[in-house]
Write a structure and sequence with these properties.
This protein is α+β, with helices and mostly antiparallel strands. It folds into 2 domains: 3-184 and 382-464, Zn peptidases (Aminopeptidase); 186-379, Alpha-Beta Plaits. It contains 11 helices and 24 strands. The strands form 6 sheets. An 8-stranded antiparallel sheet has the order 13-14-12-11-17-18-10-19, with helices on one face. A 6-stranded mixed sheet has the order 1-2-6-3-7-22, with helices on both faces. Strands 4-5-24 form a 3-stranded antiparallel sheet. Helix 10 (389-402) packs across helix 11. The two termini are 14 Å apart.
Length: 465
């Protein structure tokens, strides 16, 4: 079977459907959620788009309470799962074109979600469609499971698997090729400042500090409001920006003196790929004369997180040979004069980590600094044996399609593969391609979209035949 030839026969249709999906602004919107759209209208629209497409093409479809859904074909007792998601992270700032315009230029489709995960979702969909249209004999069922909350709390797959069948095995087209067989554990939690109370005992009183929207994103913007006209801070701030090679500005407002810093966003699984605007602004403020409560907050942030994404200062650094280093991303920073400060952290920990011991050390350390751990959530690490049927089959397919050795990889990111008993992440990012997920001007190379579709089609056939 010449899978690439079959993909090329459907190229224009594949690109158009990918653009149509990318144009849907499928952001989590809990503020405007309704019983019929529990995560907001945008993600519901994207889910329904995929289900209607599947219905049109003759798949068996099911909407599971507008939180998830599936498309299925084939026959047999065993079920092959392909886990995708249609929600996206906020677009952020600084785009060259409309983040939801799905503009094509230089052989790439530019849009939020192009590589994570709408482009790969459509590649996997067309792979299923090809196998179905070719009428190839299958002994198993194939089901695409579509989630709507992957970028936040995974309520979609949690709900789905309470009501629907668990696949025998499967893959998530939401990471890197060749094959990701191990994923770190992922914990989100807040460190909340305790007990100091409001004070006006410093030369400058910090009224508010805000940075970041999601635990799993490096913040690209931060702002702080300080009482007074800031005349004693302006020069120092400008020098700080130059010395640290970051962009920012200051201005006088009705509320006081406003400081703003621009950073570089990146996926929270590797904070060092970005420039955390919040950490830079906290670093500047830690060198100024602030009120006691604010000073304790920015000093804590700077001491334990500035240029330390591995938890060394906190005493929780750890690494193993399977998944590498523990990482810490400060995804959200918030401070209010009468309330105190909070840090929203995203911790990715290796598969062999003793989490209880790590948390015990962390709790003791932050307690001594006047902070407490709150709102802790955890997704356990995931690891599939190299000799597993799924891994061996996908290795064979990848090597036949690319002519390259299928090295096994581990990541700090969390994909839907970990929600399966036997699941791996499989593409779509080819070796050597830059990882631009969660960044401005996110794109997918059209050549790679087509190539991934051919790989997924053969993989589906080999797993289900």
């Amino acid at each position: 079977m010449d899978w690439n030839k079959e993909v090329l026969a459907r190229k224009e249709e594949l690109i158009k459907d990918t653009q149509r999906l990318l144009k849907i602004k499928s952001l989590l919107d809990e503020e405007n959620a309704t019983p019929d759209a529990p995560l907001g209208e945008g993600v519901k629209e994207a889910l329904q788009f995929m289900l209607k497409l599947g219905e049109k093409d003759g798949f068996v479809t099911k909407n599971v309470d507008n939180l998830a859904g599936h498309l299925e074909f084939g026959q047999g007792e065993e079920l092959i799962g392909i886990l995708c998601h249609v929600d996206v992270v906020p677009e952020g700032d600084g785009w060259t074109s409309d983040p939801f315009g799905a503009e094509i230029r230089d052989g790439k489709i530019f849009a939020r979600g192009a590589i994570d995960d709408k482009g790969p979702t459509m590649a996997a969909y067309y792979a299923m469609k090809m196998v179905k249209e070719l009428g190839l004999p299958l002994n198993k069922r194939v089901r695409m499971i579509i989630g709507t909350d992957e970028e936040s709390n995974w309520r979609c797959v949690d709900h789905y698997f309470k009501h629907e069948e668990m696949p025998t095995c499967g893959f998530a087209p939401d990471a890197d090729f060749p094959i990701i067989y191990a994923e770190k554990g992922i914990a989100d939690y807040d460190l909340v400042q305790q007990g100091l109370g409001s004070s006006n005992d410093g030369k400058n009183v910090l009224l508010s500090f805000e940075s970041g929207r999601r635990y799993n994103m490096v913040p690209d913007y931060a702002k702080a409001n300080i009482s007074g006209d800031g005349s004693d801070l302006a020069g120092a701030f400008e020098r700080f920006l130059n010395e640290n090679e970051v962009t920012g500005k200051h201005s006088n407002t009705a509320e006081g003196f406003l400081l703003e810093v621009e950073g570089v966003s990146a996926h929270g699984m590797e904070p060092d790929k970005g420039k955390n605007a919040g950490l830079f602004l906290a670093k500047f403020l830690s060198g100024q004369e602030l009120d006691r409560q604010a000073s304790a907050y920015v000093q804590f942030v700077t001491t334990y997180f500035q240029q330390d994404s591995r938890g060394k200062a906190l005493g929780i650094a750890y690494s193993d040979d399977i998944t590498g280093d523990l990482t810490m991303n400060v995804g959200k920073l918030s401070y209010k004069k009468d309330v105190g400060g909070t840090l929203g952290l995203n911790m990715r920990y290796p598969v062999t980590t003793n989490l209880d011991e790590t948390l015990s050390r962390l709790k003791d350390k932050v307690f001594n600094e006047g902070f407490a751990i709150e709102n802790f959530t955890d997704s356990k690490p995931h690891h599939v044996d190299e000799q597993d049927f799924l891994v061996q089959t996908l290795k064979k397919v990848y090597e036949e399609q690319t002519g390259e050795k299928a090295e096994l990889l581990s990541i700090g990111g969390g994909t839907y593969a970990r929600s399966l008993k036997s699941g791996v992440a499989f593409g779509p990012l080819f070796p050597g391609r830059p990882d631009i997920a969660h960044q401005k001007d996110e794109y997918m190379i059209i050549e790679d979209l087509l190539k991934a579709t051919a790989i997924y089609a053969q993989a589906i056939y080999e797993l289900a035949k």
